[in-house]
Amino acid sequence: MYKVRIEDSFAAAHFLRDYHGKCENLHGHNYKVRVYLKGENLSEGGMLYDFSDIKKDLKGVLNTIDHTNLNDLTENGKSVFDQNPSAERIAKYIFDSLARNDKKLAELLYRVDVFETDNNRATYEI
Q1: Which run of H or E residues covers position 109?
Q2: Is 107 a catalytic residue?
Q3: Which of 24, 67, 107, 125 is catalytic?
Q4: Residue 125 is a catalytic residue
Q5: From residue 77, how far is each of 73, 82, 87, 118 by CA, in Å?
């Protein structure tokens, strides 16, 4: 089994409803994101998936949330994060967005990590 990982980052603000603590207030993070792929077959060029293609795909997703208030993000008139953009929900949003954009990538994608800080991470994995 071959595995690859790429990493990128974005900055965004958010607040958590129903949290009952400091994070109920608007605040921001410099998020770090790691995307993991795995598969058994390599391309003719000896790659599971081209790093530059994964980076481009991830950058496309992150550009939609970079320097935003995540609570304001909507799709089809509905709140993307159900008004609670936790790191867990952000990880799933990134995972689903990547999988929706590219069928080959969707077959290889198995995990997304979102770090709010160097010490705090949420993972969405299948």
Answers
A1: strand 109-115
A2: no
A3: 67
A4: no
A5: 9, 12, 22, 33
Domain region containing 77? 2-125
**pLDDT tens figures, 75-92:** 898 999 988 999 999 999
**9 close to 32: Cβ distance less than 8 angstroms:** yes
Is 33:58 a contact under the CB 8 Å cutoff?
yes
Number of structural domains (the chain) is 1
CA geometry: angle 43, 124, 69, nearest 5 deg: 110
Digit-by-digit pLDDT tens for the chain (126 residues) are 999 999 999 999 999 988 888 888 999 999 999 999 999 999 999 999 999 999 999 999 999 999 999 999 998 989 999 889 999 999 999 999 999 988 999 999 999 999 999 999 999 999
Q: Assign 72 to helix, strand or coil.
A: helix
Residue 103 φ/ψ, nearest 5 degrees: -65, -45
Query: 24 an active-site residue?
Result: no
Give the length of the chain: 126
Who contacts 7 (Cβ-Cβ below 8 Å, separation ≥6)? 32, 33, 34, 35
| The predicted structure's pLDDT at residue 99 | 96
